[in-house]
Amino acid sequence: MSRAKGNIAEDLACIFLDENGFTILERNFYSRFGEIDIIALKDDVLHFVEVKSGLDYESAVGNLTPRKISRLVKTGYIYMKKNSLDLDFTHDALIVTQKSIEFIKNITL
């Protein structure tokens, strides 16, 4: 997927989160381990959100690999430490397709 298509999916994801009561704190946070697409806050819980898009749900969610999730988790810890945060947090995914946006809570088990 091109960076431009990724940016469009992230923009749609931010609109979705905003409409559902989240406050967007940061986009595209980078560490040496990887990137977090969106960092948002809702009800005193920090959400590290990975955005995946595709023509359909299966193709988008298929790109959510164990390696990608591991990098998301490590980068989340870096963000917490860098900002001296002591909040509850979760790692989530937003799946963006042409027909829908689906929020998946807690993608780590």
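That was protein one. Protein two is written in the same sequence-then-structure order:
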Amino acid sequence: MIKHIVCFKLRPGESVEEAVRVLKSMEGKVPSAEKIEVGADFLHSPRSYDIILQVWLSGRDDLDAYQRDEYHCSVVKKHMHAVVETSVAVDYDLEE
């Protein structure tokens, strides 16, 4: 099992709620994603990111499929690239 985590810091004035909605819209539309969890930061400290995305995938082949998925690329990535100032990601194997 692979876990894909991305933290997003949005550009000033961009809607956290809309970005969360777009990220959550992958549920049921991206077959390689077994589980998707999205959360918005409430602390708003100087080092905080605005949103976290966590995706569980069965293996590395599914991670590759997720990265190339039509809905993920044409809807989600398109929106997030337009509103994100910066992001960080971690992909790791839950069995290791």
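The longest strand covers residues 84-93. Keep this in mind for the problem set.
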